């Protein structure tokens, strides 16, 4: 593997499209949260690129925090079990929380997180998801700010990984089948 871009079969969402959508949603969220002192929570690791770009595109001061959750192991299929790898450092009680997520697949990660934040006493909990795979949704999640809908293909880039790699690609893409060689489906 010589170069990230050499392993790509085709691009699904360009960096320009990502940037355009993030700026559009950030403008809307800035209006909606003006005066509310919002707390943006990114689900690590995948949402790190999205929260960086999104928060910089917002025009109001925001607070950031991070929670590391995992529903996938090293494969391409969700295990269905959410594990906290690292918790927040902020008390969310009484706060207006906006969860920033890279992708909603089965919906299990966010369904779990929304309930957990409400249980901790957040005043409101909303979601911005850059990508959604509607055909894969297993549980309902209320998304306030939508990004792009994509087909049921395993994608990497802009924070999304395959076996912890390719998060550093600057667009959303499908990998060449050869990259997955050896994985037991
Ligand atoms: C991925 C992705 C979402 C979640 C979506 O994270 O970043 O957080 O899975 O899947 P779901 O809707 O089926 O729950 P992953 O568990 O791979 O951890 P990562 O963000 O560290 O890559
Ligand atoms: Mn994730
Ligand atoms: Mg992952």
Description:
There is one protein chain. The chain has 185 residues and is an alpha/beta fold. Helices cover 22% and strands 32% of the residues. The protein contains 3 helices and 9 strands, in the order βαβαβββαββββ. A 6-stranded mixed sheet has the order 4-3-2-5-6-7, with helices on both faces. It has a 3-stranded antiparallel sheet with strand order 1-9-8, with helices on one face. α3 (108-119) links the parallel β5 and β6. α1 (15-33) packs across α2 (48-57). It is globular and about 50 Å long. The protein starts with 7 loop residues before the first strand and ends in a 10-residue tail after the last strand. The mean pLDDT is 93. The structure holds 1-O-pyrophosphono-5-O-phosphono-alpha-D-ribofuranose (PRP), manganese (II) ion and magnesium ion. Manganese (II) ion (MN) binds next to loops. The site of magnesium ion has 3 residues, from loops.
